[in-house]
Design brief:
Two copies of one chain form a homodimer. By secondary structure, chain A is an alpha+beta fold. Chain A contains nine helices and 20 strands. Strand 13 of chain A pairs antiparallel with strand 13 of chain B, so a sheet runs across the interface.
Chain lengths: 386, 386
């Protein structure tokens, strides 16, 4: 520092960046790695240990390129002399999975570097910020279950419908064993691929089972916005067609074609966001079908709900409600946590009433998939306990 | 016509388009429909009964947008006053599935209207031109098999590897029945998703089985470019790592975890393009493992190959070789059909030598997936005949 003090110019050069580092502009740590969701061989986008993301898009004649991630305005990219657009998010992103897209000269496109994931009723780019607890959904050297695509007949919609079915690792070993079933729903604008791709539901289960932390069970994931014609508009969403498909068609098909325990005590339903709303509506109406209920960032169940649903306390073995911490407002009624009442207070009221009620908050996550991966990880060990 | 003749201006207006219709510019038939591979709710791209395709891309500030389909130069789009780019292919496309992408201001992007398919070592846009014979791979109201994702341990590559397994409709009904297995490989730049998405292998099998035209069998599809580090370069491709994964790891895993007939007479291998080359190399080296061989747009087997492979005539129950008609040149050695010699002549020579040798040509298709859908449809009924 002594030599610097003798040179005013040098001081100002050095103190400039130092000041910025103490305020809004942290100095970047140069440990960039390609996002794990990049297409094979693609180097960009990259993430570093500060949870910054940087992007690289080739579009030499473009006038403007920006990335819809990194705060309200997104991240504008700047064009280099080589015609390549680059830029880094102004601040750290939350841990976990994020959907995003590019805006190129006013048009919406995906980043050609990344894999695509179905969200917002379209296939979007995805980026993964490594989470400190990512081990629970990592692909490890443990016995793996399978994810199967099935096409089941649906008379009510006059078509074969698709579902994905997770069967636990030993499913094909012992042909006499039967398993409980969790029906697990995606959110608005997503589809039946979400839970086993961006959700890693299969890996979460494989790892929990390998550690002996959960009973093995089957998971069934199908498309929850059955009134396809209205795609893109949640306001026009009508649950009746999906309720029919799920309760009258899919469940009987699964029970006929998989080795399930097909009674109410061994059937659960859970869903994220809109899937949570579906779960609440359908389970409360069909308590002879479902015994375990999971609402992930998708409302909660109040004492009034219980009061208005005959047999609830006797028939329901678990009410699991979860949110990402960033979803919860300053108090009751605030933030997304608000619809249907304050979820924590509701959970506590149910517990006071003697119902097995669990409330979980995912730390430092928003209405995004890391909240839901963690929620499934918390929920699974609570299901189907005798 | 009489009134037109009395008005020179009217005649020239009408004859203009008529002349064009007789030469290069056919008049468009206005029966446009969204491509069946569009993302949910997306209206563009569209195709009509003349096998033309038209595109619509929103990019108001872009300088140039073109589509890499429709002849050598692709299809340039033009910007309307609303900032929307539109254009129609200059001529008809072949029936079936085509990969493509957009060039927007010099950058490569996918069409936000379509689903993506893994080809050319990247996820590309896809469009489907309805084929006159598309019924054989249509989703129908017949019993459906399942496509399962499995993660199998691979010591040689020190990771869990992914494969997709098709099991026929009755697989879970009769737990005593065992099935033959076809190992089915994708082409260069594609991956293990290709055959069950753009290939419709599962639907082709479901339909054939429903019609009683093929024995039910299992199909296993895994990634064939095992030396991942060299992705994108076929010249550096080394088959040894894949051969180890397939023969020493995947096959034993499948035989241990599925109800297979695990002897040589009940095991086949087939592949398209590079997957055909892999099939030839691996089967000829392992005739105690495979009895049925299918090369789809991927070379052929010559009399010399037979001579150089001890036991060939006795061990091999079928050699199936196919090409799209547009792949075949004017004669021996011409076109793609050429590598490894003229495939038709080779097939005939094998037949003369008493080998069960079948040569199939898909009409009016090139090195694209309709050739391979049709080839699988021809191949399946020939497999595992006693």
């Amino acid at each position: 520092m002594k030599t610097m003090l003798s040179n005013g110019v040098l001081i100002s050069i050095l103190l400039g960046p130092l000041c910025l580092a103490q305020t809004s502009q942290p100095s970047e740590v140069n440990d960039w790695k390609p996002s794990t969701l990049n297409q094979p061989g693609q180097q960009y986008p990259q993430v570093n240990s500060q949870r910054l993301a940087r992007f690289r898009i080739v579009a030499p004649q473009a006038q403007s390129v920006s990335v819809g991630l990194g705060g309200r305005g997104g991240t504008p990219l700047t064009k280099g002399e080589d015609g390549v657009w680059t830029g880094t998010t102004a601040g750290p992103l939350d841990e976990g999975f994020h959907y995003y897209h590019l805006t190129v000269d006013g048009g919406t496109f995906n980043d050609p570097g990344t894999l695509n994931f179905y969200g917002s009723t379209r296939w979007e780019s995805g980026i993964e910020i490594p989470a400190h607890d990512q081990d629970f959904y990592a692909l490890k050297d443990v016995p793996h279950g399978r994810v199967q695509q099935i096409l089941f007949p649906s008379k009510s919609t006059n078509m074969s419908r698709r579902a994905f079915v997770y069967t636990p690792p030993d499913y094909d070993k012992d042909q006499t064993q039967r398993y409980p079933v969790l029906y697990l729903q995606h959110g608005w604008g997503e589809d039946e691929t979400a839970w086993s791709t961006q959700g890693h539901a299969n890996l979460i289960m494989d790892n929990l089972i390998a550690e002996g932390k959960t009973k093995p069970f089957i998971i069934v994931m199908t498309y929850g916005m059955t009134n396809d014609a209205k795609i893109g508009s949640i306001n026009s969403f009508n649950i009746a067609p999906f309720e029919t498909v799920l309760v009258n068609e899919l469940i009987p098909y699964i029970d006929a074609n998989f080795r399930t325990l097909s009674d109410q005590p061994h059937r659960a339903m859970a869903g994220l966001s809109m899937g949570g709303m579906e779960t609440k509506t359908i389970t409360l109406k069909h308590l002879d079908v479902f015994s375990h209920i999971g609402l992930l960032s998708g409302g909660s169940i109040s004492s009034d709900d219980v009061k208005n649903t005959p047999g609830f306390a006797k028939k329901v073995k678990l009410v699991f409600v979860s949110y990402g911490s960033r979803e919860l407002g300053g108090g009751p009624g605030g933030g997304r946590g608000g619809f249907g009442g304050d979820p924590k207070a509701n959970a506590e009221a149910l517990r006071q009433a003697g119902i097995n009620s669990v409330f979980y908050v995912s730390p430092n996550t928003a209405h995004e998939f890391l909240s839901w991966r963690r929620s499934l990880h918390e929920l699974a060990p609570l299901l189907f306990k005798d």
